Structures are given as C-alpha cells and as structure tokens.
Amino acid sequence: MFSRGALTLLAAVACVHADVRDCGRYQDVADGATVKCRLVPETPVAVQEVTVSANAPGWFCYSTDIIVRVGTSVKRVNIDNGRQARLAFDARYLAGHPVDVEVTNDNSHCNSHITVRFSYDPFVAPGTVTRPCTKVHIPDGQTRTLCGFEHTKAVEVLAVDLYGEFAGFCGHSHVDVQVGGRIFEADVVHEEGTSIGPMQEVFAQNEPVVVSVTNKNSICDAWIRPFLSLRELEPTPAPTPEPVPEPIPEPVPEPIMPEPMHEPMPEPMPEPVPEPMPEPMPEPMP
Predict the structure, then answer these.
(1) Which of 36, 159, 218, 268 is most enclosed, with most CB atoms within 10 A?
(2) Which residues contact 235 (CB under 8 A, 6 or more apart)?
(3) Do residues 144 and 213 make contact, with C-beta atoms less than 8 angstroms apart?
(4) In terms of Cα–Cα distance, which of 89, 61, 59, 62 is closest to 74?
(5) What is the pTM for the complete model shown?
(6) For residue 261, what pLDDT band results from cuts at 50, 70 and 90?
C-alpha cells in the first residue's frame, strides 16, 4: 500500500487528535449490497474506530449481519434493529490516499437502513510538514504547475502523493512529475492515491518549491492534486574559524655591553745591570 519512503514517514509519527467522518444514513441497502464511506485525507491518518447502526424494517427481520472492510482488515458483526456496533481498527493512510470504509449488508434476506461513521487520527511526523496543493485540470499532453510556494526554512521534499481523477472511460494516466530539477514518472489510477519517493530534493530558504505535472494519457483529461511531504532543515551553522595563535614575540637581544677598558700594564722595569767588579790589584813583588 505504501512506498518505502512513505513507510519511513509513518514509522515514528505522533497522534494529534481524533476527527470523525460521518457519512450519514444509507436507505434500503439491499441484501448483498455494499456502501462506501470515503475520505481523501490531506494529512496521513489512521482509522481507529468504525461505528455502524442498522435497522431492517421487513417482516421477520430483527437484525442485520454486517461486514466491514477497512483497508485489508475485515470484521463481521450482527446488529439488532435500532442498535449500533463499534469496531476497532488500525489502518493507516497517506495524504491523498482515499480512506474507504466499506459496509456490506450480508443479511441474506432483508434490506436494511445502515448508518456509517468512523474516527481517524491525523498523524504528524516530527520535523515534517504535509503540504496539500491545488487540484488542477490538466488537458491531455499538457503540463501544469500545481505547487508553487516559498517556505520560511530550507526544506527537503521527501515524497509526493498524487490523487487523480480522469474524464471519460480512462481509468489511469501516465504522468511526469517535476520536483525542482528532477522528473519522476508515475501511473496514477482514477480516484486512487499514488506515492512517488523517496526524493530528497532540497530547496533553500525562501526558494520557491515548485511541482509540475504533465498528463501523458494521450486520450483523456486529468484532474490531479499533489500532497507534498516536507522536512524542515535547520540552518547549517557557519563553521567556527579556528583561533589564530598569537604570534610568539621574538626574543629581544640583550644589549651588548662594551668590554671594560683596562688600564695599560706598566712596562716592566729593566733589571739593573750589575756594575762590573774591579779587577784585583796585583800584589807587589818582593
């Protein structure tokens, strides 16, 4: 039922509040006939409970056997005239994928007046936004822009779900879906939902988010409505520059002190020259 990208979106969702789709009373539902209570949600939803009341006015008709189908879940219940049954379900649907609660009169012999309503819980994935766009008439072979809006934050388009309706006998159409600079092909079935994704197409802050669809049916006109699953991106902080180390001051050389002046050494005194010894006088001759 869901694409891989769609299942990712529903994996960690949080319940917001319950809403009710009341389809009212279906008169004289014949034995074996089925009535359908439909909702095309604008956000992902989970059907939690279906309430059915029945009243078979015919002779010997005191109750109605009812079969209730929601998605792939089927439940059977017998309802006495004028009473109601409340049946619990847990069926999840993406935005743009019709929720069909089908109720069959299985009484085997009596018509019955059947009233149907169901409660559902919208889901919001943390950090994501579902943005429905306008349903637009796209003639065969032409292209129309179905979404064009600016977002206050940078966003990533995760997936696009399409709900399509086609004129005449056309049960489906091949379409090209352009998201930003990328093109995705899809086959959209009449009155059904189609998921395209994951996409991971990023748009900058205040950049227009533009989605265009080309109808390639070759025969029939189409009415297409997209539902965008967006994730808001937090602004990337500017990288913190590494601190520039302060320059290490070069050591200041110590001043060179002049060498102290030394007094000149006195010249050595010359050693005294010894006076010559007088020659001895010769002794007189006798």
Answers:
(1) 159
(2) 153, 154, 205
(3) yes
(4) 89
(5) 0.68
(6) low
